[in-house]
Amino acid sequence: MSTPADIAGRCAKAYRLAKGGASTQEIADELGVSTDTVLRDKKRFPTAAAARSHLLAHHAAQAESAVRQAVTAAQAVAEARPGYTLVDDETARRWCGDLRAAADQLAAAASAFADYYPSATC
Prior knowledge:
Elements: H1 4-19, H2 24-31, H3 35-42, H4 45-80, H5 89-116
Helix pairs in contact: 1-2, 1-4, 2-3
């Protein structure tokens, strides 16, 4: 079963192909769907582009929120100075492991971002 995101993506592709002059049959062949599906998708064209745009905006907002939360968390950890807090060895090992794991995840995310947006990195 197709998700709304799948349908919106398929409609957007069908719309681009149709704008390029492709026939219903050519669009169906390209997308691997029936001509009936293409005809049904054509009825959605105006809303498909809007839905795709909405999904992209929603994802960007989620990413923005996640980055802000990560920055806020990093600032809170820096201000708390856990390295200068007296705790038992088990807690110290756990904190160290948690911080290193989080740092590795953030470094991987930053690397992926730099790969995708090389001109935006410093």
